[in-house]
Amino acid sequence: MKILIVEDERLLADSLKALLEQKGFQVEAVYDGESGEEYARLGIYDLLILDVMMPKLDGYALARRVRQRRCGTPILMLTARSALEDRVQGLNAGADYYLTKPFDSRELLACINALLRRQGAQVDELSLGNTALDLSTGMLVRGDRSVRLSAREFDVMRALLQAGGANLSKESILARVWGYDSNATENHVEVYVGFLRKKLASIGSDIRIVAIRRLGYHLEVGQPC
What is the number of alpha carbons within 13 Å of residue 46 lying toward its C-beta? Predict the structure, then answer.
């Protein structure tokens, strides 16, 4: 699961990032509201953690902009402002939960897990045609045949399955899998799509990764290999 932290206190942001990465999450951190909005627009995150008092764009305004785009990604607000009026303002702006500083890391993790469960993040697999992607083991499974995916292959395959047959551009796959600030190029996407096609064929999957020029890739169900 991918989490975006938007927090102008760099030490806190980096500490939260390290904590969540230890728990198995993929985490990116930015340090002002405008950067947070740019990242949130990618639509690749399963949870947004927003500070309230930030330069350029505060957390309330950022949450409102996220919700105005009809984005349902859970939002957890972190702030030292604990007055009732502040909590109400945060919830009205679109936050799902409001956690005041200082907080215990156990409470933070409990909030995160609760929000992700609410969004259905507990799903164990994604499937299409005769094939499933096991989210806990990183295996592609077709009947009694299976193959293990590398971390990058897993992320690309998950993104394609989550798209539900819609086209995903190479740019969106790059942002989702390699990260917004990565030096990876579109060739990296092409290489990993090639790897996935071979692994799908190796287990007799009926899933096809179809390339559409200038539009990217989508999945189709055809005849098994």
Answer: 19
Closest by CA to 93, choosing from 67, 118, 71, is 67
**Bridge partners of 126?**
133
Q: State the Cα–Cα distance between residues 53 and 33, nearest whole angstrom.
A: 9
* pTM of the complete model: 0.58
Per-residue pLDDT 10s for the chain (225 aa) are 789 999 999 999 999 999 999 988 889 999 999 999 988 888 788 899 999 988 889 999 999 998 888 777 899 998 887 677 777 787 888 888 888 888 888 888 888 888 887 665 445 678 899 999 987 788 999 999 999 999 899 989 988 987 778 888 898 888 878 876 678 888 999 999 999 999 999 999 999 999 998 889 999 998 765
